[in-house]
Every structure is written in structure tokens, then in C-alpha cells.
Design brief:
Blueprint: E1 9-16, H1 28-43, E2 52-56, H2 64-69, E3 79-82, H3 88-101, E4 107-114, H4 133-142, H5 150-166, H6 170-184, H7 198-203, E5 206-208, E6 211-212, E7 222-230, H8 231-235, E8 245-253, H9 264-267, H10 270-284, E9 293-295, H11 301-310, H12 319-324, E10 335-336, H13 341-345, H14 349-365, E11 378-385, E12 389-397, H15 425-431, E13 439-441, E14 453-455, E15 463-468, E16 473-477, E17 483-484, E18 495-500, E19 503-508
Helix pairs in contact: 3-14, 5-11, 6-11, 10-11
Length: about 500
């Protein structure tokens, strides 16, 4: 059955937190909230405009998404929780595009977040079959098992096979890591910003040949968010068109049966990547030769090597020659991972794909002026998860221009592409459904019951919901900037707890 035609969809806003070492200092609720607020600010919309929400994470209980989204407002919208291994963030973007492109929504908010543990990835459930057990068994049969982390073994083995078949050398893989570390120094959100020489990379501790430590991505805590909108949504806001980036082509794919053809390269998703890239580029009416900037899933340098080949950025079997020519960095054929990639920027699983999207949005808008790939009109994203799933996405400007024609400047008072800042209470109030409440008089009638709603006398669209009439009560207010309830209140309950978004404050009734 053929795929139905999809209507134009756009990334209107993006937001990021800094990616940091997983030390338990920041909770997932904070990471998701920060990223989401920044995306709403960037899109110049409020949470009331959002029709559906998608939460992307791998490590957390089943409704973490609701816990994050309720901080923006409790508007009864559908919220979906997505887990698709390392491709989780891009899977959420794909869901959002499907919803918007097929008319189920006009504005979808995608928030990815991850609070991880230090060290290599581990499985939590020991009493049931691991979903990658068949992949591990094939690796065991073909290359054996070592004490190295499992993912490093799989991708390291793919690198070994590439060397055996095509003549790549360990230095070629190390050069990929050197370049990504160099790129990350200009990305204010990167977990690591140190630069290294080729010898530094090669001499770092060996993990699984040909991979050394500096060729492996770290675990990370972080959040990222994107606002996906329809053409009609954008048409109603023509002043935002220059900042909107069209998702011109996209494909989410899973493994074909060649996964078990005893090739270490096939075992880590080469074939599904090749299919997804070909499909996404064809939908966009483009070829790999049109791509001049790419965010690629470099969980290990070996994966970047084989993926350059799978995406069609290099000639078949000649990715290492592309690396040697300097064609994956500035001045070369296609700048790969201007953000620093997973190797240096970091890899909070649920946020990674959305962070890749954010980087490419900033590139195409012309905002990433400290690391700009000049003249870029088309960008390609690749996000992969073992198990398996891959998402390839093609982006281009909605106005058809290159990034030399810089989009309208940011409205937040600074350029988020080159400066990682926090956000203010005022900005939260602008974006939050429960915003900017000023108390002149606040009171609860003894006649109001639990969960009863009443209207403000000052603003008819403001709701006050009494959720507990016993002291301390809780009063949730709606979207008005001023609340003036002049109903009589019982003197026996002089204090209540009032809620504005996710912030709780104890207040004295007057």
C-alpha cells in the first residue's frame, strides 16, 4: 500500500538545555521544562496553541511525559510517551509530523529529556528477554564477546569490518572524533568543549579496537524540544515564516532481514539507514549531493564512518577517503556534526534526536553564526537506535532561501544558537497557561465544593478551581494576567496554597 500524501509541516521553534555529565544534579522535570519553555519562546506561541504533546525518554516510569507537560499547563490535550532506544527523540518528531501532516493537529510540542546514570548503557530488566538479545547472539557467533561495553563492541566490530573490506585505518576513525571534538568548542550546549590532536585521540584508553575512549559518546543529562506546525498554522502567522524550517522529507525505518546476514556492518543498522535516507531524500525531491550540512548519529566514530556511506554522502566504500580529504568539516564537501555530534556534545537518549533538529534549524536560519555552514539550503539528520529504528529527516527553509539570508532575529533578547542561557519567571509566565497571576483579592466561598469551577469577575475566561477546601486549600488559576475574586471567604481558612504552572507558593488571603 502506497504512502498517503502528507501536507507541509514545519519546525517553528526549538529549545535546548546544556548537556551535562549525569551526576544527579538536575531532575528530568527541570530538563524537560527548560527545553519546552525555550521552544515555545522561540516559536512565539503559548502552550494554549499546542494541540498534542509528545514526550521522549528511555529512562523513567511510564507517565514521565505528563509530569513534564503538566508544568506548562493542564489543558487536557493528548500526551504520548515515546521510547525507541537512541532514536527516541527523532521518533517523537516523526510522530509529530505524521499528526500535523495528516490533519490530526495544527501544533504539536515534542519534548525529549533524559536523566541517565554514569558509565555505559545498562539493561534494567534482568527477568525477561532483552530486545537486542538476537543481535548480541549474532555478534557472539561472528566476532565473539569481550568485556567491553556491548554497544562499543557492536560498533567497533562494524569498524573492523569496514577496515577489512575497504582499507580504512585506525587513524581515519580517530580523525572523525578529532573533528567532532573540534566542532563542539563552538557549541555552547556541548557537554565537552575540549579540542584534541589526532595523537590524543589515538592514545586515549582503548575501549574496543579500533575505538578509543575519545571516539565514544558519553552518557548525558539533557533536554530538547521542538514545536511542529501545519501550513495553515503558519499561514495565520506570516511574520514567522522566515524562521520556519520545513520538514521536506522524513522516514522512520526498522531493520530488514539482512540484519542477520552475519555482517557486523549490517548488524548496527547500515541497511535500514540506507533505506531511510533514500526514502527521505526522494520525498524531498533531492539527492545526497544537495546536502551540505548533516547531523549524524556518531555514537561511536565507527558509526559515523559507515553512515557516511549509507547516507550517500560518500561513494560506496569510500567514506574513509572523504574523511582524509577533509570533506566532513568546514571547507569540505559537507560539514558533518557542526554541533560536535554525540561524541562531544553528549547523548541524553530521549533528547538527542531533537537536539540534532535544533542544530539544523539554527544552521538553516543563519543563526549559528559562530559555526555556520555558509550557503546551506538543505540539511540532513540521521538518528539511530539499536533494536532497531532509524529516522532520517531532510530540512529546508520554508521561504526557500539559503542561510546567508538570515531569518528574523531571535525575540528572546539573545541568540540561543550561540549562547546557552536560562529563562526568567517573566518568560515562563508569557508561555504558561497559568500565567502572570496578580492577587488583588483572592477568596473561596464556603459554598464551593471540591473540583467546582467559578469565573473571575474581572476576566470571564479565567477559571479558579478549588481542589481542596480544607486548609491549606489549593487554587489553580487560568490564563488571565490579573485575578480579582471578590467572593467572601471563610475566616477559618486564612491561608491557602495557590498554584501557577508548576510553582507552588504559600500566600496569605486578604
Amino acid at each position: 500500500m502506497g504512502r498517503k500524501q502528507i501536507s507541509p509541516t514545519y519546525v517553528l521553534g526549538v529549545g535546548l538545555t546544556k548537556f551535562i555529565k549525569p551526576r544527579g544534579k538536575v531532575d528530568y522535570t527541570e530538563l524537560g521544562f527548560e527545553a519546552g519553555i525555550k521552544a515555545l519562546l522561540d516559536a512565539q506561541v503559548t502552550y494554549d496553541d499546542v494541540d498534542q504533546g509528545i514526550a521522549c525518554y528511555c529512562y523513567g516510569d511510564s507517565t514521565c511525559g505528563q509530569r513534564v507537560f503538566y508544568q506548562f499547563g493542564m489543558t487536557k490535550i493528548p500526551i504520548y510517551n515515546v521510547n525507541n532506544n537512541c532514536s527516541t527523540g527523532s521518533t517523537g518528531l516523526h510522530m509529530a509530523r505524521e499528526m500535523v501532516g495528516h490533519g490530526a493537529a495544527d501544533c504539536v510540542m515534542v519534548v525529549g529529556f533524559e536523566k541517565m546514570f554514569p558509565g555505559s548503557l545498562q539493561s534494567f530488566f534482568r527477568d525477561r528477554t532483552n530486545p537486542t538479545s538476537t543481535t548480541v547472539e549474532m555478534m557472539k557467533q561472528t566476532r565473539g564477546i569481550t568485556n567491553a561495553p556491548g554497544a562499543a563492541q557492536m560498533f567497533g566490530n562494524a569498524g573492523r569490518e569496514y577496515m577489512e573490506i575497504h582499507g580504512a585505518k585506525p587513524e581515519d576513525f580517530a580523525e572523525i572524533a578529532r573533528i567532532n571534538h573540534a566542532h563542539s568548542g563552538r557549541n555552547p550546549y556541548s557537554q565537552f568543549q575540549d579540542e584534541y590532536t589526532l595523537d590524543d585521540v589515538l592514545s586515549s584508553p582503548k575501549i574496543h579496537d579500533p575505538l578509543t575512549k575519545l571516539q565514544c559518546c558519553p552518557t548525558s543529562d539533557g533536554g530538547a524540544s521542538a514545536i511542529i506546525v501545519s501550513d495553515s498554522f503558519l499561514a495565520a502567522r506570516p511574520h514567522l515564516r522566515s524562521q520556519a524550517i520545513q520538514i521536506a522529507g522524513q522516514c522512520l525505518a526498522t531493520d530488514p532481514d539482512s540484519l542477520f546476514n552475519r555482517s557486523s556492518i549490517s548488524l548496527v543498522g547500515f541497511d535500514m539507514t540506507k533505506h531511510a535516507a533514500k526514502t527521505a531524500l526522494a520525498e524531498a525531491g533531492l539527492s545526497a549531493q544537495d546536502v551540505t550540512v548533516c547531523e549524524l548519529h556518531d555514537c561511536f566514530s565507527a558509526n559515523e564512518m559507515i553512515t557516511l556511506d549509507a547516507l550517500g554522502l560518500s561513494e560506496p566504500g569510500k567514506a574513509h577517503e572523504m574523511v582524509r580529504k577533509g570533506d566532513i568539516t568546514y571547507g569540505g564537501r559537507c560539514v558533518v556534526n557542526p554541533s560536535g555530534g554525540l561524541i562531544s556534545k553528549g547523548h541524553p537518549l530521549g533528547a538527542t534526536g531533537i537536539a540534532q533538529c535544533a542544530e539544523l534549524v539554527w544552521q538553516l536560519r543563519g543563526w549559528a553564526d559562530n559555526r555556520l555552514v555558509r550557503g546551506a539550503k538543505v540539511a540532513l539528520q540521521h538518528n539511530l537506535g539499536l533494536g532497531g529504528a532509524v529516522v532520517c529527516t531532510v530540512y529546508k527553509r520554508a521561504d526557500g532561501k539559503s542561510n546567508l539570508d538570515v531569518a528574523s532575529p531571535p525575540k528572546v533578547g539573545y541568540n540561543p544558537a550561540v549562547e546557552a542561557r536560562g529563562f526568567t519567571r517573566k518568560q515562563v509566565d508569557q508561555m504558561n497557561r497559568y500565567n502572570s497571576i496578580t492577587f488583588h483579592k483572592a477568596s473561596i466561598s464556603p459554598m464551593l465544593k471540591r473540583d467546582q469551577e467559578c469565573n473571575s469577575r474581572s476576566y470571564h475566561d479565567t477559571l479558579a478551581r478549588v481542589t481542596n477546601t480544607d486548609p491549606p486549600g489549593t487554587l489553580i488559576f487560568g490564563a488571565s494576567s490579573t485575578l480579582d475574586l471578590s467572593l467572601p471567604y471563610p475566616t477559618s481558612t486564612p491561608h491557602l496554597t495557590y498554584r501557577i504552572g508548576a510553582s507552588y507558593t504559600h500566600g496569605q488571603l486578604i
